[in-house]
Amino acid sequence: MSTPDTHHRVILIVRIVSALALLAAGGIHLFLVFTGTGGLLGVAFVLNFIAGLVLGVGMLVVPRRFLLGVTALGLLFMVASLGALVIALTVGLFGIQSRWDYPLVPETVIVESIGVVVLVVATVIVFGDRRAQLTLRR
To answer: Model-level pTM?
Structure first.
């Protein structure tokens, strides 16, 4: 059985690793904007960066009672970002067909895939924590 200190440490680690994954995914998109991606795709990449930044910072600063919501939103964001890339690579998205040799495509797939796994684990842990908190209140 875990001690309260161990449990708090696990939640802190989950917050930090999840925030890093979200910031990395957003940061890749901002880097691509600064290196020449423009037009509609550039706007989408800036919005992706903003979402990753807000969710990453939120993961670190929200009170514990709101952590499940931020974690779930982070997971949805990461799945959507990875899904959009996969669609762009296969059939095209918004009239844009991406290729594997486009800058940082393989790296983005790796980072966002790891991010999905990290955020699934984080969501499960935080959900269990939230359930335990609600059970203790009864």
So the answer is: 0.89
